[in-house]
Design goal:
Layout (H helix, E strand, L loop, with lengths): L1 E3 L5 H8 L8 H13 L3 E8 L2 E10 L4 E9 L8 H12 L4 E4 L4 H9 L7
Length: 122
């Protein structure tokens, strides 16, 4: 289930985002979280499965018609189960009147998932 980020989820969100190569540096990670907390154009969602938060997907509103997926990450112990692709589809459904596109960091994930006939690898 896709849930909106709130400050009480800061530690888990930072932990999940730290799996992204561009977010390895602590200062960069703190800056990213502040962007999600302080800007209406940046929205972070967490993926809750049962009682655990196991994934995160962050978007930026580029214009009135375009939502760009900036971050997408899944806890390593839950990868290759289709969770990432499910999160992307949930965002597409949430913003069904807009075009959801990847950025350069998430583009290869989008391509991999569109090529796969099974959710198991995405």
């Amino acid at each position: 289930m896709l849930i909106r980020y709130k400050k009480s989820f800061e530690k888990i969100a930072m932990g999940l985002l730290s799996f992204m190569p561009a977010e390895k540096d602590l200062k960069q990670l703190q800056h990213t979280i502040k962007q999600y907390e302080g800007s209406d154009e940046w929205q972070l969602f967490l993926w809750k499965f049962e009682e655990d938060i196991i994934g995160a997907i962050g978007v930026i509103f580029r214009d009135e018609q375009t939502v760009e997926v900036q971050h997408i990450t899944v806890n390593p112990s839950h990868r290759h189960q289709g969770i990432g692709k499910t999160m992307v589809n949930a965002v597409k459904n949430l913003y069904k009147n807009k075009t959801v596109v990847p950025n350069e960091d998430t583009e290869s994930f989008f391509e991999k998932c569109s090529e796969q006939s099974s959710d198991d690898d995405c």
